[in-house]
Design goal:
The protein is 34% helix and 14% strand. The protein is an alpha/beta fold. It has 2 domains: 2-45 and 98-206, Ribosomal Protein L4, Chain: A (3-Layer(aba) Sandwich), CATH 3.40.1370; 50-90, no CATH class. It has a 6-stranded mixed sheet. Helix 4 (135-144) packs across helix 5.
């Protein structure tokens, strides 16, 4: 698959080949769904916690004698039946994620890349270089690329702090290192904007 390469000014400067094993496979929607559900589950904090009857304070003494009072038997004032007692089967800190085979994760990411490529929603740039941290520079670049108002995921190789900090105030633009791209961000974006260096890294990691 062959796509055009643009510069930051929106001018066409060449073409590049996309590997078919990454950008031209039949998307597996079931695996993508399973991957997204698992990814979002892992993002849950899972830190809700309650105290059981052995963890609440007090209750060391039997409230009243076993027989002769006419009241129900009670062994502790911290029974779950009492106000201030322990919680039965309450939540404890846990992870909501589950294990997913690495091959399935890679298949899910390749499926999303292929879907974006087939719908012509991947744009390749020769490079992205900013002289200073400036949100306006990124906005101008998006306008020149006809991506104004679109949700965009920007992928570049290595650390690009100026680009990352210039994108963070834009609610519809997200920056990621190419090697750390995940299926949720790819699926959530309308367009994927990737540099040639980032494309080489994506081919290396996910191809």
């Amino acid at each position: 698959m062959n796509v055009k390469v643009f510069n930051q000014n929106g001018e066409e400067v060449g073409t590049v080949d996309l590997k078919p094993e990454l950008f031209d496979i039949e998307p597996n929607e079931a695996v993508v769904h399973q991957y997204i559900v698992n990814l979002l589950a892992r993002r849950r904090q899972g830190n809700a916690s309650t105290r059981g009857r052995s963890e609440v304070r007090g209750g060391g003494r039997k409230p009243w004698r076993q027989k002769g009072t006419g009241r129900a038997r009670a062994g502790t004032i911290r029974s779950p039946l009492w106000r201030g007692g322990g919680i039965v089967f309450g939540p404890k800190p846990r992870s909501y994620g589950s294990n997913m085979p690495r091959k399935m994760k890679r298949l899910a990411i390749r499926s999303v890349f292929s879907d974006k490529a087939r719908s012509e929603r991947i744009k390749v740039l020769d490079k992205i270089e900013l002289d200073q941290i400036k949100t306006k520079a990124v906005v101008g670049m998006m306008t020149r690329l006809d991506l104004d108002g679109k949700k965009c995921l920007v992928l570049d190789e290595g650390r690009n702090d100026k680009l990352a900090m210039s994108c963070r105030n834009l609610p519809k633009v997200q920056y990621r290192r190419a090697a750390l791209a995940n299926g949720y961000d790819l699926l959530n974006a309308d367009y994927v904007l990737i540099t040639k260096a980032g494309l080489d890294k994506v081919h290396e990691v996910f191809g």
